[in-house]
Write a structure and sequence with these properties.
The chain is 45% helix and 12% strand. Helix 2 packs across helix 4 and helix 10 packs across helix 11. The protein starts with a helix and ends in a 5-residue tail after the last helix.
Length: 282
């Protein structure tokens, strides 16, 4: 771990970012060049003291999870992320692994989506980041660990995961999950994390095993979804997906036509989300 290089790199990247780059208000009394330390810490979901010690060359070696959070908060490119890992004494994620590093291009779009649910997923169905509206609609995905980080895994192992979809749509959703995983498996290979997920699901879900042998392959999301919210009931939403160039990550945006009942439900969802999650905001 090169403490001096790590401290200087973090400070310079922080100073180069402006509040509008990360969808923060500019404010009227900003004396700091770029972002404040507490703003970076909040974006990275870590304490300000921890981040400050890193910039002061006296912090502990960051874990890979912490480095991934810092890379996301500072909007690092892939090359900058790899450099961050190396000076912190960690191995950079392999280019074809299911990396927790969020595509900066997708993140810039997500930063500007405040009035509709939006989230960024890996090709294994892992939620890397979600806005407040998506959390209010789907719940907090950050609570999941291990294989359960994948929505595909949860779909075939946790019956509660299916309650968000009407019963008539669940078979179609099962096929879509398997087709998406088949595409990721073809790209990453049988010895990858995708291969491990396939092996786990073949043993734990008969439904998955039967669908897997059909060899349906696709990276797709339905253009129109009906979702069931526990408080608002059925919500019909249009679904748009934006992929990274290597198809490893997807920005999923859910909208409803203005002046419709479903649009009004989204407006109410924003209020419910604020009330429900306000106690945990920093």
């Amino acid at each position: 771990m090169d403490r001096s290089a790590l401290a200087d790199f973090l400070r310079r990247r922080r100073e180069e970012l402006q509040p509008e780059d990360v969808a923060l208000p500019l404010g009227t009394r900003r004396r700091t060049q770029g972002l404040r330390r507490e703003e970076v810490a909040s974006l990275a979901v870590m304490s300000t003291d921890y981040y400050t010690r890193l910039e002061q060359r006296r912090g502990p070696q960051p874990s890979e999870h912490m480095l991934a959070s810092l890379a996301r908060a500072l909007r690092l490119t892939d090359n900058e992320r790899d450099y961050l890992y190396r000076i912190a004494g960690r191995n950079a994620p392999a280019s074809l692994s299911a990396s927790p590093h969020v595509s900066p291009a997708l993140l810039r779009v997500l930063d500007r989506l405040n009035d509709t649910p939006a989230l960024i997923l890996t090709d294994l169905g892992e939620t890397l980041v979600q806005n407040r509206m998506a959390t209010a609609l789907f719940g907090d995905a950050s609570k999941h660990t291990g294989p359960a980080r994948s929505a595909i895994y949860r779909w075939f192992t946790d019956p509660a995961e299916r309650l968000v979809y009407p019963e008539a749509d669940r078979d179609r959703q099962s096929r879509a999950h398997v087709a998406n995983l088949r595409a990721a498996h073809g790209l990453r290979g049988p010895r990858s994390q995708a291969g491990e997920l396939v092996g786990t699901l073949q043993k734990s879900s008969r439904e998955f095993a039967q669908l897997w042998i059909r060899h349906e392959v696709a990276q797709r999301f339905e253009d129109h979804k009906t979702l069931i919210h526990p408080e608002l009931g059925s919500i019909e939403l249009d679904c748009q997906a934006l992929f990274t160039e290597d198809q490893s990550q997807t920005l999923l945006v859910l909208t409803a036509p203005p002046r419709t009942e479903d649009y009004q439900k989204l407006q109410l969802l924003a209020v419910l989300g604020l009330n429900r999650f306000a106690p945990t905001e920093h």
